[in-house]
């Protein structure tokens, strides 16, 4: 997928612990790994830098941004000493991790400064026609989106898409589907619903060609299209697409997955818009109990739904 990446630092088990909200277990495993590599290799080791990054990812997932930033900074210091300059891909990746934090904190100017600096480095090292350059345009576009600068965001995502289609020789690649998705998000926020539907549909077509019908990314596209219909007030069409997304999520992930909860939440929003209070509460309650089980009572997703359950 295009866009912000933290780098590969987790085993499969640790990854699922983190996304499942079991942060303490993931953190404990990474801290043990850090102690081991420090003992074996000393402080100036790429493995130590990798451990700092992994712990930072967990802190980021918890919303502990200052702690994450401190760990990413330690990782960056090691990598710059080892590689000697800012032109190495590992250095750029760590700087991008720091930009993710700034973006999540709402420090958009700081995030943009890093992303643009990394983009200049990538162009200097790789040239303009490179996948990593397209990813940087995408990252910058995401920050402009957060700032509400939709024309600037659209320009960046269009540049990313242009590079992608030339590199891949057309639109039969998931990175292209991601670019279409990002462009459609901007159109939706601009109120250009027909354009958004057209581009979301292109993204969906690519995903179904590559994955077939039953895949979480396909479900995501159905949900995105449903969101546009919801914004247009076409509630029956919105329900139709949200139901398609829900069916796939249940089939692929089981009844108790956060993606399933997200689909129930989408349905609750539409039912509320229709004034259907019974269905609103039913869907919100289903979503709430999944988030409660998987993410815990203090997670923002759980807390956001609690008022509907308490009615």
Describe this protein's structure:
Helices cover 81% and strands 0% of the residues. Helix 11 (216-232) runs antiparallel to helix 12 (235-253), helix 11 runs parallel beside helix 13 and helix 12 (235-253) runs antiparallel to helix 13. Residues 10-21 have low confidence and may be disordered. It has helices at residues 12-19, 23-41, 46-62, 65-83, 89-105, 108-126, 131-147, 150-168, 174-189, 193-211, 216-232, 235-253, 258-274, 277-295, 300-310. The chain contains 15 helices and no strands. It is mainly alpha-helical and 311 residues long. The chain has a domain at 1-103: Serine Threonine Protein Phosphatase 5, Tetratricopeptide repeat.
Keyword list:
single chain, 311 residues, mainly alpha, Serine Threonine Protein Phosphatase 5, Tetratricopeptide repeat, globular
